[in-house]
Amino acid sequence: MSIKRLVEFDKASSQTEQDLKNACWTILSVEDDNLYQQTLCLALRGLEVNNTPVNVVTASSAAEASLILSSRDDISVILLDVVMETDDAGLRLVDTIRSVIGNNRVRIILLTGQPGMAPHEDVMKQYDIDEYWIKTDTSEEQLRSSVTSNIRTWHYLTELFNAKRGLQMLVDASRVITSKRDIRSFTRTVLLEIAKVIGVSSEGGIVCAHHNAYKSIKEADVIAVSGRFSKHQSGLIQDILQAVDSKEKSNILSLLETAMNSQSHSFSEGLSALYFSTQGVDKRSYIIYVQTPETLSSAHIALLQVFCENISNGFTNLALFNRLSQLAYYDTEMNAPNRNWLEREISQLDTSALSDSILVLVDVKNYAETAVMLGKRYIETLMRSFHQVLLFEFSRAAAICRVDDNQLALLFLESDTVDSQRLARLTEKKVVIDGVQHTVLSTVGEMSLKHIVGSAASEIVTTAQIAVASAREKKLSYTHFDVKTTGEIANRQLILHELYGAMTSANELSVALQPKVNMLTGKLVGAEALIRWVRPDGKTVPPSKFIPVAEASGLINRIDLIVLRKTIAAIDALSNEGIRVPVSFNVTCSDLRNETFVEEVWNSLDSSSIEPSLLEIEITETQAMEDYDFINPILRQFRQRGIKISIDDFGTGYSSLSHITDLAVSTLKLDRSFVSKLSGDEKQAGVAVCEMVLRLANKFNFEVIAEGVENDEEKLELIGIGYELAQGFYFAKPMALSEFIKWANKRSQ
């Protein structure tokens, strides 16, 4: 068996013994002396190496030789004249062969008729030149012996080159298999390549098994087999060895145990045990048992050991990929598929399957609060127990995934397998933890995917989450997906896109001023600046449409800065018209936490000529109480500068008397919800609340103003209770600055 057979990887790039007999060794003679060229050919006529004849190809110049070498890869030896068309033509050709063509395998013998033209020793080493001969001193015997030796060297280097190329092919194949996370396909490919490397015939065989450290080697699980063991595609090592006689079986098991115990490859007569470990990644070990009809030579073993490095890398890469896949597609706490897995599965469904599929989202209530109160371990144990309940009760679900910390999703591929009544009962479910019964409260949303065919998988899951969040805000425990939701989301996205443009436009965003009046005298006492958005086509976008989008997208701070600047400009314009009344604008807790916003308030005041007392800030009661310790010092700074502070929507939030009395505010604005009761069926309750707020304001020296007054009855009731200041459509709707000036001037006449 030739070495050529031992390192055979690819039929297209290797030769069988029969091919070798029909082939020949090719050498190239580069010589510009035709007579000497003929002499070389005659000297080499009939030469055979390993029973294969030698064929001589000739070239009369370095240029001609370059063309031949660039188109052929089978030239083993070059007999090269140093001096040809130029004194250094031969060495230039050597540089082209090594550096340009990149052929490091071809052997080069320099021949020259001019002894003084011999290359330096360092040049010989640099270009890997094998020998240098003076033409007149070279005998036929020397020539044939040198050519024979160098052909064998080239043959050996070529086999190593082919082996390396074959190993690279295996590594590439292993990567492809690893990307599919298929250990069986990978190991089958490994067995086929090992058979090629060492020439395992059908009389021999190879077995790959996964070994568990807690079991004996004969109980190792078989993953792949080839050759004489092919009929046993699965099972244990002991099952594979049933047809082997007891002595051979003993030898095999002994060799396998030696390899496993030493954690290294072991070899004996006709048997090889190859050990591979991915303990550092997935705590697994693999053993490959190779049986050959003939004893492996040292060359076989050397090649196999080199090959094993590639196999080991392949096993490790596969283990790492599987680990990454586990992290990417599974929740490690629950050991369940995660959102990425769900989106991948949905994206692989065709239109027909998608139209018949149902996605159910279960949102566990009070997850964060429970985690804070009872700890991470408790809440995760609760979620795992809940997951097990779902697995048991909804076994017909294609998957039950964890898509968020507090959310589980059930995917049904057939709509008739969904029991809505059973799903509805998930809103309140009992689970047992450590023998103690616990109640899990959830919001459940059911969504037929036929409504959103054509949407990306990530959008489908997000839509389900939005639907459940909407149900949770509406205090619903169970909801069916409303197809309008997707349209509403699309509209909000369009609004967001247009809002970006409006913020850079000089005219689209403006403020409208709504008067505040003294109900007893009719005198104008102030105004509130309210944001308005008019598109270039003249259509108005209601604040109720774009303000929630701005808040959700984080644009609200930038919009409030625009309102601040336009409010100060309005105050300046009113002052120039002799209308000196405070104008308020709304801010959020987020604005006050933003250092840029606070600095902009100071800078705007410093750069304008208005009095700080003409600027008023409105903040809702809930916002003011949200972060009292942080917000109140900032409000106090505004008050010290002369800016007025109003608590908007007073009475609807959650505040304590101690905080209200200490809050740096000047005005309380009675919420519209209480004013409206003064002209309705709940008049008595409305009067009671209005009286209470007025007494509180008077007690602590707050100015008080009623907002949302819409009719004469409400006005008269408020006056009767003791209110003087009010704001609402009854007096005037919000209007543009120019209209407000006209209204105010007319009012003062």
Model description:
The chain has 749 residues and is of the alpha/beta class. The chain folds into four domains: 3-160, Rossmann fold; 180-329, Beta-Lactamase; 334-482, 2-Layer Sandwich (Alpha-Beta Plaits); 494-748, TIM Barrel (Alpha-Beta Barrel). Helix content is 49%, strand content 21%. The chain contains 30 helices and 28 strands. The strands form five sheets. It has an eight-stranded mixed barrel, surrounded by four helices. It has a six-stranded mixed beta sheet with strand order 2-3-1-4-5-6, with helices on both faces. Strands 14, 15, 16, 17, 18 and 19 form a six-stranded mixed beta sheet that branches. Helix 18 (457-473) links the parallel strand 18 and strand 19. Helix 7 (140-179) runs antiparallel to helix 8 (183-198), helix 13 crosses helix 18 (457-473) and helix 15 (367-374) packs across helix 16 (376-393). Residues 1-22 have low confidence and may be disordered. Keywords: Phosphoprotein.
Question: CATH superfamily of the largest domain, please?
Answer: EAL domain
Poorly predicted runs are 1-22
Mean model confidence by pLDDT: 84
Q: What number of domains?
A: 4
- Large-scale geometry: elongated
Q: How big a fraction of the residues is strand?
A: 15-25%
Question: Could you say what the CATH topology of the largest domain is called?
Answer: TIM Barrel
Number of helices: 30
Total number of β-strand segments? 28
Helix content: 40-55%
Name the structural class: alpha/beta
The CATH architecture of the largest domain would be: Alpha-Beta Barrel
Sequence of strands across the biggest β-sheet? 20-21-23-24-25-26-27-28
Protein name: Diguanylate phosphodiesterase
GO molecular function: cyclic-guanylate-specific phosphodiesterase activity
Pfam families: DUF3369, EAL
Organism: Alteromonas marina
